[in-house]
Design a protein that fits this description.
The complex is a heterodimer. By secondary structure, chain A is mainly beta. Chain A contains two helices and eleven strands. Chain B is of the alpha/beta class. Helices cover 34% and strands 15% of the residues of chain B. Chain B contains ten helices and nine strands. Chain B has an eight-stranded mixed sheet, with helices on both faces. In chain B, strand 8, helix 8 and strand 9 form a beta-alpha-beta unit. The longest helix of chain B is centred in the middle third of the chain and has 15 residues. The N and C termini of chain B lie far apart (75 Å). The chains are: A mainly beta, B alpha/beta. At the A-B interface, helix 1, strand 6, strand 7, helix 2 and strand 8 of A face helix 1, strand 1, helix 5 and helix 6 of B.
């Protein structure tokens, strides 16, 4: 069963983690390090997130990440994003490193009209200078919604469309590319990470209402 | 752990048996060009979803719904005027409701005016037949725009809370009526949805806009809207086009209103904190003759929620001009 689970996780990882937490890769993260992270910021809406990372026993630094983020609001966790994937150093020369992140996501959205669950794939690349105390990198990536399950409420069917069809929809429910910069300050076992960038829809001519993202994150490394 | 694997497997399998987002009729109703059973009229190069009630020879009342990008479903109460001797015409404006969809580049304010001229011409049975316009919100703005362009064609008008008869007034109303609380549930219900359905097809854009409708009637909303009111289907592209026009070109529907001699009726909801008597009077004052009427215990959606209080105000006005 563990093999099946690992296979599924790898499948999700190989189908192209967009907004997983960034780390300072300068000290190459010793093996078996646990990293607990928290983020606050703006990604489509004001959000807060928690994530966990585990440095896998590989030669090249590679971290398995899983996390949850959710927008603010009176209804707790009616909207959220779950992510899982791998993030690691793909190439390095001295302090210059290229980081690749691959993963999958499950996004959930609920309002009084509909519940939407979306399976998505995410890919991110980062290139930057990583020093023991600080790092700065450019980042770009892609998120694709692969399929979505919709369930409409009674209000939707009564006031809008009586015969709306619930169920799975595809093939792509949405797609965004993003580009931006990230920078961080490291001290003791902690990193403070700031990211800012721009989102552009690749599946629609109309972009997100506020097409910018920014997060402030904190990493705590436990060995 | 086994349960998680099973759930993930089921989800992946189910994802293989999926429906198409853009299949007409799946998420939003079909439009008149996709469903021949819907009542439609062919005017000015487009198919409009339209209905009429009453004796075609009676004085005509054309209802202009709000939006832009809404439809006449929450204005259906206006049909009741047919029982009082009026010929009532309701239509979904170009590119919204159940009317045919068009590319964004096609839209202009003049096109909306031409559509209205064509609708009136189609239903009018004689040159002597009187024509009244009854506009709600954006529809009331369009009513003013039409009178501003063609003051001799309309025999009277009812304007229910036009959102702004020129760009300055529109911005003023927008600022007070559409406040965003960054951490509010209603805000994230609008913004977070962007993450889920970012596609270009009319079906998806209209559906997504519809999902944002609860924002308008959020608890303690400034416009005093009591709750959800029904609509068929939003027109996202028509809304985007008109917003672009307003933002990039501006507009002023008041330049010739002083030349319109007939008294117009302005109605506004008591509970709309963004509108009120002051704003209503400011807008009405562009007309040389006007009557102001406050509809008690309701807000911006007075025609749907308090028709029983709107009708006794509208009817005497129309009867006096009939």
């Amino acid at each position: 069963m563990k093999k099946i689970l690992l296979s599924l996780l790898l499948c999700l990882a190989l189908t192209p983690v967009l907004y997983g937490q960034s780390y300072n890769w300068a000290d190459a993260l010793p093996r078996a390090t646990h990293i607990v992270s928290a983020q606050l910021g703006w990604e489509y809406a004001a959000i807060a997130g928690l994530s966990y990372g585990y440095r896998l026993p590989t030669c090249r630094p590679l971290v398995f990440q899983a996390g949850i983020s959710a927008p603010f609001g009176q209804s707790a966790l009616d909207d959220f994003t779950l992510q899982a994937g791998l993030r690691g150093v793909a190439w390095e020369r001295h302090h210059l490193k290229a980081i690749l992140a691959l993963g999958g996501s499950y996004q959930h959205y609920a309002s009084e009209l509909v519940r939407i669950g979306t399976l998505g794939a995410e890919l991110q690349a980062e290139l930057g200078i990583y020093r023991p105390r600080w790092f700065v990198a450019g980042e770009t990536g892609l998120h694709l919604g692969l399929a979505a399950r919709l369930r409409h409420s009674e209000i939707y069917t009564q006031t809008i469309y009586a015969t709306a069809r619930d169920g799975w929809y595809g093939p792509v429910s949405g797609g965004f590319v993003h580009g931006g910069i990230q920078t961080g300050y490291s001290f003791k076992r902690s990193d403070l990470v700031f990211r800012i960038g721009y989102l552009q829809s690749v599946t629609s001519g109309t972009n997100a209402l506020i097409p910018y993202y920014t997060t402030l994150g904190y990493n705590w490394r436990i060995q | 752990m086994n349960k998680i694997v099973i759930v993930v497997l089921i989800a992946l399998l189910a994802a293989g048996c999926r429906q198409a987002f853009d299949e007409p009729g799946n998420l939003v109703p079909k439009t008149v060009d996709e469903d021949a059973s819907l009542p439609a009229i062919n005017v000015n190069g487009t198919l409009l979803h339209a209905e009429s009630y009453g004796n075609p020879d009676s004085p005509m009342v054309v209802f202009l719904h709000g939006g832009p990008g809404a439809d006449y479903r929450n204005g259906l109460n206006v049909r009741e005027l047919a029982a009082y001797g009026y010929f009532v015409v309701l239509y979904d404006q170009r590119g919204t409701g159940l009317s045919q969809r068009h590319p964004k580049e096609q839209f202009s304010i003049q096109l909306y005016l031409d559509d209205l001229s064509a609708v009136i011409a189609l239903y009018r049975t004689s040159p002597a037949q009187k024509v009244f316009l009854f506009g709600h919100s954006w529809g009331a703005m369009l009513t003013a725009a039409y009178i501003n362009a063609y003051p001799d064609r309309i025999d009277g008008a009812i304007l229910a809370e036009p959102g702004g008869l020129n760009k300055t007034l529109l911005d003023a109303y927008g600022t007070t009526s559409r406040k965003l609380g960054l951490l509010a549930e209603t805000t994230n219900n609008v913004l977070y949805a962007e993450k889920f359905l970012s596609r270009n097809e009319h079906e998806i854009l209209d559906y997504k806009l519809g999902l944002q409708s609860p924002f308008s009637y959020a608890e303690n909303n400034d416009e005093g809207i009591e709750g959800p009111s029904p609509f068929w289907r939003n027109g996202a592209v028509s809304l985007a086009a008109m917003l672009d026009i307003a933002e990039n070109e501006g507009f002023d529907f008041t330049t010739q209103l002083a030349a319109y001699p007939t008294k117009v009726l302005f109605i506004y909801g008591e509970n709309n904190r963004s509108y009120g008597e002051t704003f209503a009077r400011k807008e009405a004052s562009f007309f040389p003759a006007y009557e102001l009427a406050r509809i008690e215990d309701t807000g911006h959606e007075m025609i749907y929620f308090k028709w029983d209080k709107v009708l006794p105000v509208v009817l005497p006005y129309l009867n006096a001009l009939k």
